[in-house]
């Protein structure tokens, strides 16, 4: 899922300190009125009648057939709308009214034919954003340290499922495996499961993990083996991952891409924001005139919040899929054992109005050319915590703590010092900037290059949370 804003392709993390401007909303929406477009139609050739009425009992008709062998070429004006835009407009027209922001977001990101993530590689300097694993190998290595520590707390089981949700290019998992390669007992115990919906990214992940049957035309496209013999499987959802084994789940920059419902406070109470088509055929944001199904999740989220916290808000975002996914994770950890690590940019409070679109490392309007930009929203970490605790008494939730605290307590400082001992000047510069981007806060004080390429630290903007089975005890580094 992943994938953050940076002001230049050379920067490592996209900055989440800005909020893209949102379209103004109306107090209530009007149903779409679709006027039929008047397409000019060429009339058929007119019949030719003779002026001589005297010689025949009926009129003699002569038909002009001169154009039959040379039919008029039809010139249709090309539509400016993309296939995804046409699809969205047809859905709104079929419904007879607007769709929710969550429906819009889901179509934009994972529409099977034109979704943002489906048919392209959106990661890295040449893509639309850069994620932590693409910044430095140290990130994946530290995640590997966390996974091995949890595995030891679980009693070093002989078999364990290692699951990654939204693996991107597979870089995190590749760095994790390389860093853990010396711990053979751990690597021999794991079965890797990648939860990925994008066929394009699945192919890249197979190459990144150096799967030895990636070129085998007869091989199952959803199963492979790394060069070191570790089995890898691909799934569309977490529910498809086999149960019955202790499970370690990694969700890095995954929850932020789950679709959110947005609500705005109005004179009649909380109204859901919707996406409609205006009279100018452009998308616009309107307000629902009556409660929507997502209102149930809003009520649940408000129940978890303090009255004083809600009184200050004019907007609220809720993510039903995040709540449902968290409960699925908690139930699995409760029954099978193990734990989950969630790292994402977000808040340790209720989220107000954070939905944003990023294209080529720059913020754009969320309604501008749907499918060409990444849509994401701040993760509501308290909602994740309450969701997990609500569904099972056998799990404990730890955090959130900042990414800087998480990586620092796992020993990233020692790792960067070790790497600096044996590298070139160019590699050292890359290590220092990568390290700062992972754990720093704001602009790097040591930077002497161009101002527009100043590394931006995201150590305090990203948060880490763990959900574990109570039997394992407190996971590192949440002590």
Key structural traits:
479 residues; alpha+beta; 9-stranded mixed beta sheet; 14 helices; 21 strands; 30% helix; disordered N terminus
Tell me what you see in this structure.
With 479 residues, the protein is an alpha+beta fold. A hairpin with a 2-residue loop joins strand 9 (261-266) and strand 10. Helix 4 crosses helix 5 and helix 10 (320-336) packs across helix 11. The model is unreliable at 1-78 and 124-129 (pLDDT under 50). It has helices at 83-95, 101-110, 132-135, 137-153, 171-179, 184-189, 199-208, 295-304, 307-311, 320-336, 381-391, 403-410, 412-420, 425-439; strands spanning 48-49, 61-62, 99-100, 160-165, 190-195, 223-225, 231-235, 247-252, 261-266, 269-277, 283-287, 315-318, 338-347, 356-359, 362-364, 374-376, 379-380, 395-402, 441-443, 456-458, 462-469. The strands form five sheets. Strands 4, 5, 6, 7, 8, 13, 17, 18 and 21 form a nine-stranded mixed β-sheet that branches. Strands 3, 9, 10, 11 and 12 form a five-stranded antiparallel β-sheet that branches. It contains 14 helices and 21 strands. The protein is globular. The longest helix has 17 residues, at 137-153.
